[in-house]
Amino acid sequence: MNARFVVPMLAVGTLALSGCVSNDTAADSAIAVSSTADGCDVASATAPSGSIVFEVTNNGDDVTEFYLLADDGLRIITEVENIGPGLSRELVAQIPAGEYITACKPGMVGDGIQAAFTVTDSGAEVGPTGEIGEQLDAAADQYLLYVRDQVASLVTKTDAFVAAYLAGDDQAAADMYADTRVHWERIEPVAEAFGDLDPSMDLREADLAEGEEWTGWHHMEKDLFPPAEGYELNQDERQALADQLVADTAELNSRVNAEDFQIDAFQIGNGAKELLDEVAAGKITGEEEAWSHTDLWDFQANLDGAYVAFGVLQPVVEQTDPDLAAELTSRFDAVQTLLAEQGSVETGFTYYDDLTEAQIQELARAVDALGEPLSQLTAAAVL
To answer: Which of 94, 183, 297, 358 could disulfide-link to 153, CB 3.0 to 4.6 Å?
Structure first.
């Protein structure tokens, strides 16, 4: 792995290999999904358990998302985000038999357009088997250690950030803001899987629904980096935001450390692409950190998380699709080289509003070049 990615890797390393083997699982036919402003047309309401591929096309005018939810409508089984008008994205998942809900979310707000979806029992084992299956199980275990480590760091740094924020030491809190959020941004797809925590912790003002309470990091960001016309919360308002953020972060820590919490290989692969989509949709545009302009810290963190996800799956992909593994390594290096020219998490980055248009476009092109091969990672690893 490229030494420029200074990410705590824990047990993430090379998985034991014993020669090339074939992947035992093949994808079923893709299920077409058409998302429009007022519709979510899923070509089939049922599918056999095992590998399921949704081919999601945005036929509307707004950016959309597609989710497969548990039957409670809250837990996210898998998702694909930031699908622009006229674009298609493939979502790959290994799904056991059961009752689920599909949802398109045009405009990426609200509960989305939902429908029941049934996965019948195919009788086949869900997920890759044989040596590939064992390697992917090991990769999932390694990635889970990484997630837990990042959340533990998030808890520690959030406590320190909140202490400074409540003490009125705004400069110290502002200095901690970007560095603390790095640990959230590295594992954002995992955190987003808990549908109640993500909006509470990371909702931007621009994405607020009418009447929705605004809590989380970005409300505190606006308070610490106020716009030109001024913006200031009183101590009671600060206390409420701080209490909620600390409670949500502790709850996230509890959930990822629960004995029954697992991350499957397909979630790792899909998550890698989601992290890069986060860069393309918010960080490279400067929309994520609208007041602090610390978008490049988030950019680096998303890239770190995607690279770790690729790293744990890389030994399998090197067997199933060595050309893809080589291309992904090269593309990751290219993005990291450009980003390193603007700084690092340890030393600080150029603020987004100090970047030139040429620098932004160069970073955007590198992200786009990585995005296409990264979209193939899940299929190469688990199908």
So the answer is: 183
Give the residue extent of every domain in the chain: 26-126, 129-383
pLDDT in tens, 71-102: 878 677 888 888 999 999 888 887 889 999 99
Domain spanning 129-383: CATH 1.20.1420.20: yes
Residue 148, helix vs strand vs coil: helix
Contacts of 39 (CB under 8 A, 6+ apart): 104, 113
The gap from C-alpha 381 to its chain's centroid, in whole angstroms, comes to 18
Element spanning 297, H or E: helix 295-320
- Between the alpha carbon of residue 142 and those of residues 4, 65, 185, 214, 324, the distances in Å are 20, 28, 18, 35, 22
Q: What is the distance of C-alpha 315 from the center of its chain?
A: 22
- Return the CATH class of domain 26-126: mainly beta
Is the distance from CB of 349 to CB of 373 less than 8 angstroms? no
Q: State the Cα–Cα distance between residues 304 and 297, nearest whole angstrom.
A: 10
Predicted model pTM:
0.76
Rounded to whole angstroms, how far apart are CA atoms 238 and 180? 18
| Distance (Å, whole) CA 112 – CA 134 | 37
DSSP 113: E
| Residue pLDDT, tens place only, 313-366 | 999 999 999 999 999 999 999 999 999 999 999 999 999 999 999 999 999 999
**CA dihedral angle for residue 30, residue 272, residue 135, residue 332, rounded to 10 degrees:** 120
| Number of continuous H segments (helices) and E segments (strands) in the chain | 11, 11
Of residues 242, 168, 167, the one with CA closest to residue 201 = 242
Strand runs labelled E in the chain:
31-35, 40-42, 46-48, 50-58, 64-70, 76-83, 88-95, 98-104, 113-120, 343-344, 348-349
Instruction: Identify the pLDDT of residue 127.
Output: 60
